[in-house]
Design brief:
Length: about 300
Amino acid sequence: MSEYRPGAARRKMGPRLAEFTTFRLGGPCRGLTTCATRLELRRAIEQLGEAGEPFVLMGGGSNLLVSDAGVDAHVIRYFSEKPLIARAGNDLSVQASTRLDDLAAYTVLNGLDGLICCTGIPGTVGGAIVGNAGAFGEQIGDRVVSITAMDRSGNEREMTADELSFGYRRSALADTDIIVVAARLRLRPGDRERLRARRQEILALRASKHPDWQRIPTAGSFFKNIEPTSSAERRQAAGWFLEQAGAKSMRVGGARTFEKHANIIIAERGCKAADVLELARQMAARVKEKFGIDLHREVRLLGAFE
Ligand SMILES: Cc1cc2nc3c(=O)[nH]c(=O)nc-3n(C[C@H](O)[C@H](O)[C@H](O)COP(=O)(O)OP(=O)(O)OC[C@H]3O[C@@H](n4cnc5c(N)ncnc54)[C@H](O)[C@@H]3O)c2cc1C
């Protein structure tokens, strides 16, 4: 756990959040504490509580657009460099600070099926549960039995999957103060070789369609796909509507759409978070004008935007 010094509070003396988001955008915060374990998390929350210091929580920063002005609060980053996973039969207990792709890789090594859809998705298990991350029509919420939730005072309680109301890229946890500390997931036995081959296939597919987030600043799909209006319809890709509306060649300042995928915004040198948001506004306006459809943001905003 990095050190928290109450004396440094009240001014944005902390690091620029650009260092901790895959968009590589965002101004300073009051201070930042990285916690890998539940104990570290609890201690950080207690210290901040004693200092009367407000905080916001982030995981891998892969679904965030942080404002250029930064965040007027302390940031707790619940993130572990190494996977924290325990197996009991077909069930896994995982600390939410674990990288989602580390968890997906663990299931392959252990011959457990059910989370292969999460292969290659950046960020943590905690962030994935809050936003019900997934791909190919499957998502992490399908495997969640329960979570350990922590409130802002450090109190813990178990919540079952039913209470979490998972839906497409959403859960009851979004926009609450609840912190996902750990989760219990139920998988089924799978063939290790078949899972390994599928993992390679998905990694290759993602590499061919998405920008490499380790090199190119992005937060993946900016807008959610469009929900069907009846059970007979399928969810429609926001990227298709954006492409038809001519969004593939759009740019505002240092923000532009990715050449292979109109729903992905990438940040070039000198890009500001405000450029990204303005580009997103213009993209959504084009789709509204051409199709009368409202696009909804998948990427979450942190900090003040005009
Ligand atoms: C190249 C690229 C490809 C992507 N592909 C996909 C994809 O295929 N499918 C998909 O679903 N997503 C995809 N994403 C988006 C992103 O990876 C997921 O949304 C991811 O689950 C976010 O996790 P995170 O830890 O980075 O969350 P963050 O970005 O750090 O946070 C997102 C939100 O979750 C909250 N949060 C984070 N951790 C916790 C916690 N422990 N408890 C409570 N709240 C928490 C934060 O407060 C914030 O509101 C992609 C992103 C990139 C950059």
